[in-house]
């Protein structure tokens, strides 16, 4: 009965072969077939590696995977399957051996799922070499295998695989490097949760290889980014993927136009992790641009992103964005500092910026001490400080108060009543914890000045009262 079913594996039809593969796990556990299993596996292994027809070899891969699923993961070692496949994928003379081994790895991953993950690390080096194989059939099989492996990876599997792939980018062999790039691109087929965790590490590396000395590696990098763009679910971002990719490939000339396109886009749908992976490198590069207008657009986009995406997806990019925010806070152009400060105010609705306070506080202090009274930077810096302070339970802001007080004091004496009103209102929120008491000698003169405001309807007088 079992042998008759196995014969159907030679019928090239994915539904037939899949059905046979699903039956085998139940049949091979029968005591009556226990002694026949090694011989069946040997026959299927020979068919996998030497059969002339594509359907025969593909069917053999389905059969081996079904048998291993029925016997358990230990069967890979007991029946010497992995060592035979490893030898086959390194066979240089006959492409069928390499293609057949890839078929088997693909089906084993499909049938065993996460149980096969420990073996993936050992398969990766051979899979990388197959991407640059001289046979187009082997390259196609490698591509299919990579997509399926990546789609089945768990969070732990991604952690196992990612370091090896990133390390392979430093290899001197351009074929290995190109294969690693293609595998990194195939990670776009990971489950959404795994995808959001790995893309912040992958995309910067892919951008680096766009300037590689070998043209094939550059092409592989561009194609990998295109694959990541193809899995974007947000229709608004999907429509401008070519613009984003052009900005990543030619940042010097295309960044400004890309930012303007993003600002002109009306977002209706949620921004997913693949969208962020292409947008954030462009924004990060924009903060380093000499043009104030480009940096201002980047600041606007950062402020908008926080309300349009899952904050957990945005967090991995903060370490790279903070230096640009800090530098822009000290920008000599007042409008730039005001724009950045205002967008930071929207970011601090959550506690995500608290670990970066040592980098941000100097810029906020500089905004508070801004000598230009009509600029919005000072007006927004005080709410940010008050908002940060109210969000922390551990008084994370206390160590920075000595640096902030001089700016608060000067802003209290601001000739613009609205400015003083903003400062006083936010100082009131700070004093809920009595933390300003040691600094009262510095603050009281400013409060006194606000109370003596000659404008009767002045907001500062009301706030001071």
Automatic annotation (TrEMBL):
Residues 26-261 form the TOG domain. This is TOG domain-containing protein. Keywords: Repeat. HEAT repeats lie at residues 202-239. The keyword Repeat applies. PANTHER family: STALLED RIBOSOME SENSOR GCN1, TRANSLATIONAL ACTIVATOR GCN1-RELATED.
């Amino acid at each position: 009965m079992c042998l008759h079913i196995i014969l159907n594996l030679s019928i090239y039809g994915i539904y037939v072969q899949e059905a046979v593969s699903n039956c085998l796990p139940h049949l091979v556990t029968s005591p009556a077939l226990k002694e026949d299993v090694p011989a069946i596996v040997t026959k299927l292994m020979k068919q996998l590696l030497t059969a002339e027809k594509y359907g025969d070899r593909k069917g053999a891969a389905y059969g081996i995977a079904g048998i291993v699923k029925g016997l358990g993961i230990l069967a890979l070692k007991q029946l010497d399957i992995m060592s035979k496949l490893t030898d086959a994928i390194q066979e240089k003379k006959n492409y069928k051996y390499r293609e057949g081994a890839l078929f088997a790895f693909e089906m084993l991953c499909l049938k065993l799922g996460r149980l096969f993950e420990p073996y993936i690390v050992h398969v990766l080096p051979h899979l990388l070499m197959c991407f640059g194989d001289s046979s187009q059939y082997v390259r196609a099989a490698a591509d299919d295998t990579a997509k399926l492996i990546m789609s089945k990876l768990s969070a732990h599997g991604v952690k196992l695989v990612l370091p090896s792939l990133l390390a392979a980018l430093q290899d001197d062999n351009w074929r290995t490097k190109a294969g690693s790039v293609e595998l990194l691109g195939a990670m776009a087929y990971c489950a959404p949760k795994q995808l959001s965790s790995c893309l912040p590490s992958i995309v910067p590396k892919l951008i680096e290889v766009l300037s590689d000395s070998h043209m094939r590696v550059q092409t592989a990098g561009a194609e990998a980014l295109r694959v990541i763009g193809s899995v974007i679910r947000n229709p608004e971002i999907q429509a401008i993927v070519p613009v984003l990719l052009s900005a990543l490939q030619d940042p010097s000339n295309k960044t400004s136009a890309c930012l303007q396109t993003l600002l002109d886009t009306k977002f209706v749908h949620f921004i997913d992790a693949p969208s962020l992976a292409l947008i954030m490198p462009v924004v990060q590069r924009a903060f380093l641009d000499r043009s104030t207008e480009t940096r201002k657009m980047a600041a606007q986009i950062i402020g908008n992103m926080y309300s349009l995406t899952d904050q957990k997806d945005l967090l991995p990019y903060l370490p790279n964005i903070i230096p640009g925010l800090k530098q822009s806070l000290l920008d000599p152009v007042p409008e730039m500092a005001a724009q950045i400060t205002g967008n930071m105010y929207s970011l601090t609705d959550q506690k995500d910026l608290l670990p970066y306070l040592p980098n941000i506080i100097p810029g906020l202090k500089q905004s508070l001490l801004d000598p230009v009274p009509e600029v919005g930077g000072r007006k927004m810096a005080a709410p940010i400080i008050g908002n940060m302070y109210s969000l922390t339970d551990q008084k994370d802001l206390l160590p920075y108060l000595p640096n902030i007080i001089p700016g608060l004091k000067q802003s209290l004496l601001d000739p613009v009543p609205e400015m003083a009103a903003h400062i006083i209102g936010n100082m009131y929120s700070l004093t809920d914890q009595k933390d300003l008491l040691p600094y009262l000698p510095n603050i009281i003169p400013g409060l006194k000045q606000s109370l003596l405001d000659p404008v009767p309807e002045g907001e500062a007088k009301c706030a001071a009262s």
